[in-house]
Amino acid sequence: MRTQVAIIGGGPAGLLLSHLLHLQGIDSVVLESRDRDYVEHRQRAGMLEQGTTDALRDSGVGERLDREGLVHHGLELRFGGAGHRIPLTGLTGRTVTVYAQTEIVKDLVARRLADGGDIRFEAEVVDLDASAPRVTYRGGGETRTLDCDYIAGCDGFHGVSRPAVPGLRTFSRDYPFAWLGILAGVRPSTEELIYASHDRGFALHSLRSPTVSRLYLQVPPDEDIAAWPDARIWDELAARFATGDGWKLHEGPVTDKAITPMRSFVAEPMRHDRLFLAGDAGHIVPPTGAKGLNLAVSDVIILARALTERYATGSETLLDGYSDACLRRVWRAEHFSYWMTTLLHVDPAATAFERRLQRAHLDYVASSEAAATSLAENYVGLPIE
Ligand code: FAS
Ligand code: PHB
């Protein structure tokens, strides 16, 4: 078997790359270890930068996004029992959109299959040669190989592609907390996202639709989900979102709950020979700034441009510049995600002095247009080079 680009991983990065390459007449095969139902229902991100929604719309997969996505123009920072709105669009002229990663994956799978795309589910890549280049995968009880011109490692943080890059430099930070995330069949208590910083810990009120809420709360890093029955989750969320103006949290049936560890991670370079890393395979951010999925999208936009130039002109200039171009954007997003995470979460080891500094920082962001604009321009996403 042979293709032009072998794509390891059928998450948002791999699927979008396959779609963008197809639009340029470049063949690819997506190899995904899990089954279709699993990847289409794995609860993850939900906040899209305007650059992401523009890319989906411009490439012809934005129709349901435009119909069902919730366009937002601001967010609320809530601390000291009061809310402070950050007018994202007023400060930047750009918007963000709430549209679940699961829906993006469904839209991309449907479009690739409708276009005759080759997505192989339950096909686990077990080996790869970045110089041949060739990937070896197991599927249907057989072991097969796929020869190609290039390999895109879109296989997430636990994939096989990053370990195949020799001499890799990695940079990481683990945080002293995790996120317990829930999906609840209840009308959201807010129209815009609420990021709450409370002495008891961080909480985030996001949403998925007029009838489905998505909420998160900070828990210890090794927390057992069994210690969090629904009633306790709602009580803790209500305590952390409490205000003095009578605002009420709507509670309802929890339909999904999971604990996500918080880490910052970057691997350099994001390329070895004919292997290119994209998305979580190359970097991880704490989800506070809603950058993970959006970084995956910008990586594959940059990679698709580079592969298009290569096949159209023979030039490898953009391919040679791929890793540096991605990493400039990755490190900006890493800093913003670290900054927003430490601004809003309670570090158990923080001294009283550090907690006062944190409160002063929150007061500054909530009261200074310059500080709020810095948060806003990073949150809505900086233009893709
Ligand atoms: P993914 O991990 O999404 O996809 C990689 C794919 O590769 C997977 O489907 C996997 O099955 C497959 N794969 C792995 N090894 C393979 C192999 N050997 N062979 C074949 N296939 C293989 N981001 C946010 O912005 N906000 C959030 O709230 C948020 N919450 C998250 C919660 C969790 C639990 C996790 C893990 C991540 C979360 N993220 C969040 C980040 C997340 O959205 C990622 O940034 C996004 O999924 C990145 O997409 P991909 O790079 O495609 O990686
Ligand atoms: C989500 O809706 O899942 C979401 C939104 C904003 C974040 C993180 C997660 O910062």
Quick summary of this structure?
By secondary structure, this protein is of the alpha+beta class. Helix content is 36%, strand content 30%. It has two domains: 5-71 and 97-172 and 263-343, FAD/NAD(P)-binding domain (3-Layer(bba) Sandwich), CATH 3.50.50; 175-262 and 348-380, 2-Layer Sandwich (D-Amino Acid Oxidase, Chain A, domain 2), CATH 3.30.9.10.
Strand content: 25-35%
Taking pLDDT < 50 over at least 5 consecutive residues as the criterion, the unreliable ranges are none
Overall spatial form: globular
Indicate the CATH architecture of the largest domain.
Answer: 3-Layer(bba) Sandwich
Describe the model.
The chain has 385 residues and is an alpha+beta fold. It folds into two domains: 5-71 and 97-172 and 263-343, FAD/NAD(P)-binding domain; 175-262 and 348-380, D-Amino Acid Oxidase, subunit A, domain 2 (D-Amino Acid Oxidase, Chain A, domain 2, 2-Layer Sandwich). It has helices at residues 12-23, 36-41, 50-58, 63-68, 88-92, 101-114, 230-241, 292-313, 317-320, 322-344, 352-367, 369-379; strands spanning 2-8, 28-31, 47-48, 70-72, 75-79, 82-86, 96-98, 118-120, 124-129, 134-139, 142-153, 169-184, 194-198, 201-209, 212-219, 254-268, 271-272, 275-277, 283-284. The strands form three sheets. Strands 1, 2, 8, 9, 10, 11, 17 and 18 form an eight-stranded mixed sheet that branches. Strands 6-5-13-14-15-12-16-19 form an eight-stranded mixed sheet. Helix 1 (12-23) runs parallel beside helix 6. The radius of gyration is 21 Å and the shape is globular. Bound molecules: arabino-flavin-adenine dinucleotide and P-hydroxybenzoic acid. P-hydroxybenzoic acid is lined by residues 45-47, 193, 206, 214, 287-290.
